[in-house]
Amino acid sequence: MTHDLHGRTRRLELSDQALRDFEAVVLDSSPEGVVLDRSAFYPGGGGQPADHGVLIWQGVETRIAGVRKGDDLYLIPAEGDPVPPPGTVVRAAVADARRSALMRTHSGLHVLCGVVFRDYGCPVTGGNMDELSARMDFNLPEVPPGFKEAVEDACNAEIAADRRIDVRVLPRAEAFALPDIIRTATNLVPESVQDVRIVDIVGLDTQADGGTHVASTKQIGRIRVAKVESKGKGFRRLRIQISD
Prior knowledge:
Layout: E1 5-6, E2 9-11, E3 21-30, E4 33-36, E5 38-39, E6 53-57, E7 60-69, E8 73-77, E9 89-94, H1 96-120, E10 124-130, E11 133-139, H2 147-160, E12 165-171, H3 172-176, E13 195-201, E14 205-208, E15 222-230, E16 235-243
Parallel strand pairs: 2-5
Antiparallel strand pairs: 1-2, 3-4, 3-9, 6-7, 6-9, 7-8, 10-11, 11-16, 12-13, 13-14, 15-16
Helix pairs in contact: 1-2
């Protein structure tokens, strides 16, 4: 399986993160899920939620309420909506406001991760995000004085620097030869994955990552570190909010 194929579905969003509208052919369908030959719907993973959107076919609209990964990539129709039969050509649209907000948020988390790793040497232990709000957990034994303000200021300085965010795919051995490529406390990339997708905030942060991102840090907006919480020994949770 290549990096941009999930089951029978070619994943368009991995190579074109700006793509929102596309045409596809239905390979399989039921009320539990629609399988397309190609799709730009992000299926969720790495803390980033799945996309929403619509399929238009023969004058009918099917709302997509989520995506499920299995042997194929299943677009989950909204309850009660009709589903297009196999062989149907559909026009698909990813909900732009939601995806764009999640891309800004995801890139913001990478900036946060890069800053905390660079300035404090702390690996990530977990994270999650919604539209324009997120949390990231770090292995940080002590919280230094002024930590919250210092991290926020450093993140926004990196955003103002308008750093380019590049995405590339490398063979596993080459990817893991990069220094600090895994910023989490444990390596979450399965042994079966031979092509590793790399997201590089040039000059700040390089990580193995499967999610969608904006093209440069300036597109993120502004990061506010809303709260720093202690969740146990060495376990600090930073909550952030993204604004224009």
